[in-house]
Amino acid sequence: MKTTLAWAVLLIGTVAVQAVLLPLIFTQGVKPDIILIITMSAGLLAGRERAVGVAFFAGLMQDFASGNVFGLNTLAKMATGYTAGLAERKVFKESILLPVLAVIIATLFNSAFMQALLFILGYKVEPAAVFMNQVLPSIGYNILFCIPVHRLIYRMTFGNRSQF
Q1: Which of these CATH numbers, 1.10.1760, 1.20.120, 3.30.870, 3.40.50, describes 2-158?
Q2: What is the pLDDT of residues 93-149, one digit of tens each?
Q3: Which residues make Cβ contacts (< 8 Å) with residue 147, sequence separation at least 6?
C-alpha cells in the first residue's frame, strides 16, 4: 500500500510538472519525457508487470493532460515499459550507463511506436522530419534527466540496499 501510494504521488506530480512547468522552460515545443524515463526505469528495475501498470496510469494521465489522440501515450508507454521489462533480469541494475543507453533506445522505440499508431489511424506521418525535429532533441533532454530519475526509481524499488 505504501509503495502504491508513493508511485501514485510520483506519477501525478510528474504529469503535473510535465504538463504545466516544462512547456514554460522548454519553449521550442520539444521537452523531456520524464514519464517515459520513469516507465523505462520501472521496467528495467522492477519488471514488466510493474512497468505496464506504471505506464498505463501515467500514460492515461498524460493523454488527459496533453490533448493529443486519446490513448496514444498510454499504448506507447505500455509497449515501451513492457519491452524494457523484458530486459530486467539481463541487465546490471547498478550500472551508471544503463539509464543513458536505455533512455536512448526507449525514446526511439516510443517515438517509432507512436508514429506507427498515428499512421495506422490515418494521420499523415513524416518520419524524417519527426526524427530530426522532435526525436533527436528529445533524446538529448531525456539523457539529462535519466540518471536522477533512474536513481529515484531504484531507491523506490530496492530501498537503500546499494550504493547506487
Answers
A1: 1.10.1760
A2: 889 899 999 999 999 999 999 999 999 999 999 999 999 999 999 999 999 999 999
A3: 96, 99, 100
